[in-house]
Structures are given as C-alpha cells and as structure tokens.
Model the fold of this input.
Amino acid sequence: MKAGNPHLTSNRLLDQVRERARYLHYSLATEKAYLYWVRFFVRWHGLRHPRDMAASEVEAFLSMLATERRVSASTHNQALSALLFLYREVLAVDLPWLTSITRPSSVKRIPCVLTKDEVAAVLAHMDGITALLARLLYGTGMRLMEGVRLRIKDVDFDRHVIIVREAKGNKDRVVMMPRSLAPALRLQLLAARAQWEADRQAQRSGVELPHALHAKYPKAGQTWAWFWLFPSPTLSVDPRSGIERRHHLFEERLQRGLKRATVLAGIAKPVSVHTLRHSFATHLLQAGTDIRTVQELLGHSDVSTTMIYTHVLKAAAGGTTSPLDALVRI
Done:
C-alpha cells in the first residue's frame, strides 16, 4: 500500500479529495457528492482514517446504506464510486478487494414522457426566460445544465445549430437550433450583450472558464464569445475560486417554473426538466427519425441507452388488443 498520492499538496483528507477531483476535471456536483460520501464514511466509522480500513469497513458502510437507509441503487452506486475514488485516486491504493466489491444492479425504468399536446400545454403556462429555456431544451434534447451553460460562441444562427460543449462523458456534440426559436434567441442574445457590456463597464471579473483555460488565456473570461447566453441577473461567489462574478442562470429557476406550469396545465405526471429531453427523443422516433440520429442528438455513447424510448413507443402505441375488448363486443 502506498502512503498516498504523491501529487497532492494538502495534508487534510477532504482537501485531498477536493484537490484530486479538480485535477481530474470532475464537475462541481461530483466533487460535492464525493466529499459528502467520504465525510459520511469516515464519521460512521468513528473518525478512523480510511487508510486504516479495508473491504470489511467499506462493505459494512454500503450494507448500512442499503438496509438501514434504504437508498436507491443509483445512490448506492454513487457512494461506492466515491469510496473507490478515495482509495484509488487520493490514497493511491489499488488492492484486489477494491474490484471484488459488487455494485447493485440498476433497474431500467420507462421514463415519464409527455404527449405533444401536454408539452404545448405546459409551455403555454410559462413565460419570460424560463419559457425560452424550456422550449430550447424540448426543441434540442439538451440536458438542463447543458442549456444553462451555453456560451455565445456556441450558438450558430447561420447554420441553425448549437454546439454542446463538454457534455456528459466530457464529449461535444451538435444539436439543431429550432428555427421557430431563432427570433427569441436573438432577443436573448441582445439581453445578454447588454449584461456583458454593463459588467465590462463596471470592471467585474469575467465568467468562469473550463479547466485551465483561464491560466492560458487570462482575459478570455471577459470576452463576449465566452459570455453566458443565459446569464444570471445577480452576481455570486464562485465556490471554487472565491471570486465574485456573473454565473449562468440558476437551474432551480427553470425547475420551479416547470413544476408550476405542470400544475396549471392540470397534468398529473411526475414532470421534471429531464422529461422535456425524454419527450424530445420519443417525439422524434414517433416522427420516423432514425434511432442512430436520435442517439447522436442525445449524446448517448451506446444505442442501447436510446432504445429505452422504443419501449415508450410500444407502451404508448397500444398495438395489442386486450382479450377483454373481445368480450365486450360479444
């Protein structure tokens, strides 16, 4: 067993986890989740250092989550991933017992999908910037964070495409720009431009840049090309750098607006922002779009992930007649 990762500069365990996550360019959400599970693991074992624990302690912790906390398979897997990250990436431990810990099998569930009429009804009860963003997510299949993180440089009005940068799996992809949204997006571009110019006039810090770009291009964050298409109306403190700057639109603003619109539309389904993405994929397949094209638009690595929407179509089609219907006609 090694003493630890030689590249880490901090002596405190949680700081080491944070430092390693940032070195590997993990998202802030993943960083926070891993910190939570490592802290929970250490505290549950009476503040023992993970280097002094092994497979039995890890399995006992995961067993507690499953039996006492009754966490879902996805939460269980996240906790296990955090602990594997701790031992392999932070403590530089790679022993056989790490690979022998089994993951709970995840259950493939048919996602909630709205009909076209239901999408129209929900969108009709939204207004302002959240309405535009909801329409954009449904019209492109983008995830919530992909939408709010759009930069000016990635919106191409000439070709009617949007480039989604560093999406899930750290991949880029191209999606269509709904032509019906182009006028509204141009107006949003003007609003963002006014905000950018006000920030430059006030000599505020530039927007956050991905990874090491700030070190390579220190002024890039202040340029118009890197500004957010959907900037936040208020300034906030960057949790990583501690710098007060303009962030993108807070994602919960759309989540709240969509929930409210769903209630007003009288829809009883469990609608979330991701439902718009599910509906996008299903409606494309209903219209005869090739599944490989849908896979590329969604950014799925494996077509089997996209295949879940064919199950949605089968459920919606109702092609098989129930034997009860034959009895009723007698």
The longest strand covers residues 231-237.
